[in-house]
Amino acid sequence: MTAPADGGADADVRLRRMPKVELHCHLEGCVRPGTFLELARAHGVPLPTTDPERVYAYTDMASFLAVFERLAAAVVTRDDVRRISYEALVDAARGSAVVYREMFVNPTLHPTLPYDELLAGITEGVHEARRDTGIVTRLIPSVYRAHSPAAAADMVRAVARGDRDLVVGIGMDGDETAGPPASFTEAYALARDAGLQVTAHAGERFGAEEVRTCLDLLGCTRIDHGYGLLQDAELLARVRDTGTHVTCAWLSTTYNYRGPADTHPIRLLHDAGVRISLGSDDPALGGTDLAGDYRAVSARLGLTADDLARQNHAALDAAWLPAEEKAAVRARLEDAGG
Ligand code: HPA
Ligand code: ZN
User: Fold this and answer.
1) How far is Cα 229 from Cα 238, in angstroms, rounded to an integer?
2) Domain range for residue 37?
3) Residue 223 Cα to ligand 2 middle (Å)
4) Which string of DSSP letters, residue by residue, matches 78-89?
5) Residues 6+ apart with CB under 8 A from 150
6) Does the N-terminal or the C-terminal CB of the chain have fewer CB atoms within 10 Å?
7) Measured between alpha carbons, how far is 174 from 141 in angstroms, rounded to an integer?
């Protein structure tokens, strides 16, 4: 399939303008290349190239995460964090009509910035972006899997003690081969005991077992990526029947999946009746944005604009937002006919 499912430029415009609810996006993956180059120069982070077109080059999951870590290392001060948060959110609101976003951030990738300072910088950027575009944001500090379980538990303690106006839960991301999810049981128990919601990246590289661990042992009520569910019919049926929301991302499938469109994991999860939605994940690293991802799944996988509009409602159902604010976001979806 090469043409958009609904055909042509009008369909592209509809996809771009459709108000979007995005539950899977990493703050550090939204840094504009020009901003990264400025911050890296300011903080002495060594660069493989100063060409903004090539500075985020990667070929697979491992090189992708190396770029991500270098990017995070350039974000050092509270004002750096304010700036990247603001830019991330206005880019999403203006470029892709995102009206609500839950955004991951990896505190342990900014080791010299105390958590409260990191959160204060993000909060400033979030408020400025809301003032300028209306975008509503919540935050999900995320465990980085290559770091130790003790570091994860310390991070969760800081999150639990810190300001909770914007922070709604914790997540887990990074290298799925670095350590099993079960090693983060303590961090997740601390988070749940503190009243935080919990999700995790799992099954991004198609393992089902770790999705099961995240549900059963870590208590996750959402799963990020989750493609490994397709390897286990019983688990897939359970996730479908419990309405557990799975946040998919086109970007990561572009380097982790090489098969045909009709067995693409996002298409199969959709066809299986799982409640899914699309997130841009790391739009700056993908050289695209959420609207571009909508176009890709429409053109390549045959999901229609109506499918995607329904996914936005499913994402809002699964969002960690109080009922009143949820209703206001819902009204923005409905006002636009989405
Ligand atoms: N997978 C795992 N970790 C990540 C990703 C991802 O797609 N993006 C940022 N951190
Ligand atoms: Zn992700």
Assistant:
1) 10
2) 8-329
3) 10
4) HHHHHHHHHHHH
5) none
6) N
7) 13
Q: Which residue's alpha carbon is at the smallest distance from atom 7 of ligand 1?
A: 252
End-to-end CA distance of the chain: 25
Q: What burial letters (b/e) apply to 126-144, b meaning 16+ CB within 10 Å? A: bbbbeeebebbbbbbbbbb
CA angle at 165 for the pair 319 and 322, rounded to the nearest 5°: 35
Q: What is the per-residue pLDDT across 208-241, written as a single tens digit (0 to 9) for each?
A: 999 999 999 999 999 999 999 999 999 999 999 9
In a mutational test of the pocket of ligand 1, which residue from 173, 206, 250 has the highest number of ligand atoms less than 8 Å from its CB?
A: 173
| Domain assignment of residue 169, yes or no | yes
Q: What is the percent of the chain where pLDDT is above 90? A: 92
In 154-278, where do the E strands start and end? Answer: 169-173, 197-198, 201-202, 222-225, 245-248, 276-278
We report the CATH number of the domain holding residue 272 as 3.20.20.140
Hey, CA dihedral for 101, 217, 322, 85, is it positive or negative? negative
For the full predicted model, state whether its pTM sits above 0.85. yes
CA distances (Å), origin 69, targets 51, 115, 337: 18, 18, 40
State the Cα–Cα distance between residues 149 and 186, nearest whole angstrom: 8
Q: Which atom of ligand 1 is nearest to the CA of 26?
A: 9
Ligand 1 center from residue 214 Cα (angstroms): 16
Name the one residue in this structure whose structure tokens are 């739009």.
283
